[in-house]
Amino acid sequence: MTTNRIALITGANKGIGFATARQLGALGMTVLVGARNAERGRAAERELRDGGADARFVPLDVTDAESVAAAAKLVESEYGRLDVLVNNAGIFLGDGPRALPSATTVATLRRVYETNVFGVATVTNALLPLLLRAPAARIVNVSSEVGSIAVMTNPDGALFELASVPYPSSKAALNMLTAMYAKELRDTRIKVNAANPGYCATDFNGNSGFRTAEQGAEVSVHLATLPADGPNGLLWGFQMDAGGGYGVLPW
């Protein structure tokens, strides 16, 4: 078995997830490219390997319990542990950032929550035994400032006019998941934090963001490589309302 640290990134075939895999690979980690689409996953694996990373595609659909179980079994059989889990996979559905809550359909909410909330819990629970085997594992849940109730209700903030419910509420739920897992695992060597990459230009938003995927990935990589005295149970990353820079955001 490899002596490298092992990192699994969900939704790693493109965007922030791919950039995260590339940056962790550059740090010498073995990166496991979690992706639903086999063709795209293998293409990402090849590109990462061509760039010098020790990368491997892992079939993984976070909304499919059997797929998640198979991925966990593969990691256990091949590596015996997991040092880093980056819950990066996410989806955005709705009628735009200014859509009214009263126009939200339950069907849309369910679809978004299946990936952004339930998928994270499913993956984390399946891989937690392997994370506990690592000397000092890190769990990073890729969230967003739109999941911060304090940010979204600040009348002087840049995001106050946003009214869409599905994606922001799913990230608020993810923030609570992060806080509760951090509390459960506070007496272990695992640290659990939520990452706010900021508004990054990716396929996720039609490449309309003002930050790059690489800049967004920096946040996840920072939390994935925290030292032993690093924080636990925080939402950390890009601070839009504070004029930029990195730091702790309010839940």
Describe this structure in words.
- The protein is of the alpha/beta class and 251 residues long.
- Helix content is 41%, strand content 16%.
- The chain is built from seven helices and eight strands, in the order βαβαβαβαβααβαββ.
- The protein has helices at residues 15-26, 38-50, 65-79, 106-133, 149-152, 166-184, 213-224; strands at residues 6-9, 30-35, 54-59, 84-87, 138-142, 191-196, 235-238, 246-249.
- Strands 3-2-1-4-5-6-7-8 form an eight-stranded mixed beta sheet, sandwiched between helices.
- The model has no long low-confidence stretch (mean pLDDT 93).
Task: Summarize the helices and strands and which ones pair or pack.
Elements: E1 6-9, H1 15-26, E2 30-35, H2 38-50, E3 54-59, H3 65-79, E4 84-87, H4 106-133, E5 138-142, H5 149-152, H6 166-184, E6 191-196, H7 213-224, E7 235-238, E8 246-249
Parallel strand pairs: 1-2, 1-4, 2-3, 4-5, 5-6, 6-7
Antiparallel strand pairs: 7-8
End-to-end gap:
39 Å
Tally of extended strands? 8
User: How many strands, what sense, and barrel or not for the largest sheet?
Assistant: 8 strands, mixed
Query: Overall 3D geometry?
Result: globular
Structure class? alpha/beta
Q: Uncertain segments of ≥5 residues (pLDDT<50)?
A: none
How much helicity do the residues have?
Answer: 40-55%
Helices and strands, in order, run as EHEHEHEHEHHEHEE
Arithmetic mean pLDDT: 93
Classify the beta-strand content into a percent band: 15-25%
Whole-angstrom Rg: 17 Å
Number of distinct helices: 7
Query: Taking strands numbered 1, 2, ... along the chain, how are they ordered across the largest sheet?
Result: 3-2-1-4-5-6-7-8
